[in-house]
Amino acid sequence: MTAMIGLFSTCLGDAVHPRVVRDAGRVLEAAGVSPVPIAGATCCGQPAWNGGFVADARRVARRTLRAVAELDAVVVPSGSCAAMMRLHWPQLFAGDRDAALAARVAPRVFELSQYLVEELAAPPIGSHTGRAVAYHDSCHMLRELRLHDPPRRLLAAVADLRELPRSDRCCGFGGAFAVRYPDVSTAMADDKLATAQAAGAATVVSADPGCIMHIEGRASRTGAPVRVVHLASVLADAL
Amino acid sequence: MSGFARRSAAALADPVRHDNVRRFSERAHDHRTESVAGVDFEALRDAGERIRSRSVAEMPALIDEFEANLERAGAIVHRAPTGVDAAAYIAGVVARHGSEVVKGKSMASEEIGLNERLAADGVDVVETDLGEFIVQTAGERPEHIIIPAIHKSRADVRELFEPLAGHPIGDEPAALADFARAHLRERFLRAQVGITGVNFGVAETGTVVIVENEGNGRMCSGVPKVHIAVMGMERVVPKLADLGTLLPLLIRSGTGQKITSYVSMIGGPRRGDEADGPDELHVVILDNGRSRVRETEYASVLRCIRGGAWQNVCPVYRHVGGTAYGWVYGGPIGAVLTPLLHPQGGLDELSQASSLCAACDDVCPVRIPLHDLLIGLRRDRANAAAGAMEKLAFRLWSLAWSRPWLYRISTRAARRIPMNGRGRPAAAHLPVIGRWLRSRDVVVKR
Q: Which of A100, A162, A214, B430 has its CA 20 to 30 A from that of A154?
């Protein structure tokens, strides 16, 4: 029996970045995986979990947890959602009727680059395009999932990968933080854009739709000449 | 606008201050990074976590031991349940000896409003740490726990010092420091009482440990006839040997040095046969909510040794500085400690003043899980009646997004809303999206 691999589109993927989800699907296909559709999944529940609203987080996450229950692996094109599902779902459902299910599913959730590099040990995907890119480490992907090398390995195979100075510094998104304290959040995005421009990075790549939406949204408003692209799209463009 | 939003907007609106805080905290962070390279800092952090966890777990017994050993050496120990009590006790000691006080850096004294209390009694208190002296002269509060005047440029300092000096000094740092040195030297010689903070209190030996670089702490503790040391009760540690772990952790985290210029270990007042030291040593052990916090799920925050690495690495702190947090401590420790120690301050919003980036967790020398503590405080806040509107919003959200068809409709609809702010879209008037669109667009990748 072939393994059933699902691609979880995430709420930002559905609402803002549908192309990223399609690109992630193409990349998985190129790596020899045919993701199955996940019926009935919504959001991982992170907005409510981070806000401290546990019951609401559970209500939403339960829907998604059950939708992915039968899959052998869940691939997520978002470090932040993957961290929520892998690391925080067992906490969220502790003592709940779905506790055992959450504990069983959590280790089967993988961020996209983690899945390609660590699980599939896939050979390089796509051919080198010569495109110059700099990688922004998203907070939860780096400091919770500890994924530093996998996205870089994939990028280095298809692009001229430059290091973004202080690539590990938060872009200021932070979910509700971005709308609760827009002045501070925006100053943090400006920092990120200034760093990218000073380093001559015209294209910033991230594996998190939240960061992309924030950095790109600010660049669009100020006219900063920085493109912000998802890792999946860079890889798909190189196929 | 909330208090934090208002104070941070003010901080962001001052470009010189904004730039200084950003630049110097970044530099301090780089110094830390350099100083932990080439040593097994992770093993040191593990050891530090063990020592400090034990310190918190055994705190009451350790405080008893610390007190007994200090008293045996001739010191007078006062346990202050509240900040008001601590300040009143110190004011009483000062009143018996004179009206001139020299003071070393102490965040605990900031916490209890000591300078204001002493000023009300007509006592002349001068801060002797250079940064604190600058901040005091400006009539401000420390902006950073290690670098109090982090927000001041040399020109700012010149403008503060020249009126005191009565002659031009210029803005060379060495000239400015020379002036402060000469000015403060007279005060050290005149003062009847010196007040300092405490970095660690060693239970086993009754030793008060003070870490500093300017020698002012040693002058405050050694020159006047009376020395009063103010210690947050959580600073107690079991053994003298623990300092072998904790001093390098504290110092590399705080200033990026291997060791500070001065590490004073004070074992009591001057004994009959000794030439130097105060005749009286008072050690004020401040509770001010710490015993209460120790009984909660947030007890691990009491491990804190105030290394300050969290402050330099915090992307929010870098933009707004410490006073924007509304009390004494800034950055993630401020966001956690303030609502816990100062619950009447109306500052429980501080747990929200973080993007949850977790950078602080990676540098904390004693591995305090600040990220989890922040989320815990948000949970408490969500359960309290305070956030009724927010509670309703999350309830409606969860009811909608636990239904796949409603989820599908809402996410598909979101793609179609024009959210490029330059055309003043209708979405700019929506409650949450509108706050996003004030300074950012939403670029849909179709």
A: A214
Residue in B18, B392, B401 to test binding to A, most A beta-carbons within 10 Å: B401
Torsion of CA A132, B419, A49, B391, to 10 degrees: 170
Q: Where in chain A is the domain with CATH 3.40.50.10700?
A: 131-237
Specify if B399 maps to a domain: yes
Count up the domains in chain B and report the number: 2
B416 touches chain A (CB under 8 A): no
Q: What is the pLDDT of residues B287-300, one digit of tens each?
A: 999 999 999 999 99
Q: Is residue B286 part of a domain?
A: yes
Q: What is the pLDDT of residues B394-409, one digit of tens each?
A: 999 999 999 999 999 9
Is the confidence at residue B422, as pLDDT, over 70?
A: no
**In chain A, what residues touch B382 (CB-CB under 8 Å)?**
51-54
A131-237 folds as Rossmann fold (3.40.50)
Burial letters B408-432, b for 16+ CB under 10 A, else e: eebbeebbeeebbbeeebebeeeee
- Give the chain B residue nearest A91 (alpha carbons): B372
User: Residue B418: pLDDT above 80?
Assistant: no
* B412 contact A CB<8A: yes
Mean per-residue pLDDT of chain A: 96
Q: Please report whether residue B86 resides in a domain.
A: yes
Structural domain for B145, as ranges: 53-158+185-290
Go through B260-295 and write b for each residue having 16 or more CB atoms within 10 A of its CB, e for each that does not. beebbebbbbbeeeeeebbebbbbbbbbbbbeebbe
Q: Does A16 touch chain B (CB under 8 A)?
A: yes
Q: How far does the CA of residue B293 sit from the closest CA of chain A (Å)?
A: 20
For position B419, what pLDDT does the model report? 72
- Are B286 and B403 in the same domain? no
Distances (CA, A) of B407 to A12, A54, A79, B145, B168: 12, 19, 21, 46, 68
B364 in a domain, yes or no?
no
Q: Give me the interface pTM, i.e. the ipTM.
A: 0.95
Same domain, B76 and B194: yes
The phi, psi pair for B401, rounded to 5°, reads -85, 0
Contacts of B315 in chain A (CB under 8 A): 169-170, 172, 188, 191
A137 near B CB under 8 A: no
Q: Are residues B403 and B280 in the same domain?
A: no
B395 contacts on A by Cβ (under 8 Å): 56
How many whole angstroms from its chain centre is CA A104? 21
* Closest CA–CA distance from residue B371 to any residue of chain A (Å): 10
Q: Give residue B179's pLDDT.
A: 97
